[in-house]
Amino acid sequence: MNIQPDYDQIEILLDKLINFKINDYDKLRNYVYYEKNRFKNISGLSAFISRGFLREKTLLKRVIRSGNKNEKFIQEIFWRVYWQGWLESYVNIWEKYKKDISLIENNKLNKIPNYQDAINGNTSIQPFDEWVKILKNDGYLHNHERMWFSSIWIHYLEIPWQLGCKFFYENLLDADVASNLLSWRWVAGLQTYGKKYIATESNINKYTYNRYLGFKLPKVKDIVIKNEDKIINSITASKLEKKYQNCAFLIMENDLNLDLFNKLKCKIDFFIIIKFNLGFVQKSENVVKFQKNLFKEFIKKEIDKKIKYIVFELPNENSAIYSFIKKNNIANLLYNYTRVGYEKDILDKLLFKLKDDILIHNILDDFYYESWQFCKKGFFKFKEKIPILLSKLN
Description:
This protein is α/β, with parallel strands linked by helices. It contains 19 helices and five strands.
């Protein structure tokens, strides 16, 4: 089964999750299946969550209403929320990563030992090479495979973790900046400094039902990674107000969700869809195709014949959207809070130019605002707050 970019598949996956898979999720979630059984024990919903089609909050509500409140599955959803909140609280980690990856790539990738073999699946490490092919062909890997993959990349092949992080981001259908970046940091021993994740032959064999029985890992390397200073920052967001005058509503192609729009009580004068040109990120053909088709599905089901809209692509059309806003006397610009990532970097440059002329409202849902207040330390501290956060959903 491959992930199809349509609403029908979301409902099919939700139905299978709530009625069947969730019952044994805690027992089976770490096992990896292949070919047609790849989603036998996992939801398969991550690609839709990452693009805003399905919010973590919405998924939690569906699970709670079903009565099948599997604690481990609920915790896994909150891991996503936690990673997002942590990165929003330490934005300098994102800035540091971008500088690091730029520096590494400018020093000629073909000079980095094992890198070309790794991205082409030619390392002679049987499971790793198969995972590369699966990732490139299907745009998906089980979470356990991702952990093993990144561990082999960093601690056995001795390739900079930043390159692996980018490789995943360019090839995963469900690529999420926070989850991806912080997971690679965790495996490297940076997120919890000094605590590295080292994949082993026995663990890989156990959770793949001996698919790779007899394979050998090379000698593990003692990688020394310098600790990084975390600089805490406040999260600045707007609260939803009752009325706005002369409004435009922005929706981003990486966050295709109308929950906020549907809550608005005021008249929206202009509905603007923002697309992004991430030319510096070489996303795979699979990812580009999936995102384009998901966007078409969103327009077809949610927008066409319902809402009059205009599309701009940033940063190419920064001047055009600026002129449009000025020409139409737009006084208030509303949009869902945009999370740390490449798209936010591009959007912020436009908003900086507009900030003296109009009121900008980046509205963060209360669930995320409250959850992220507890994300400044480790997950296990955050986990203590999950019952409180769930009670507010009810």
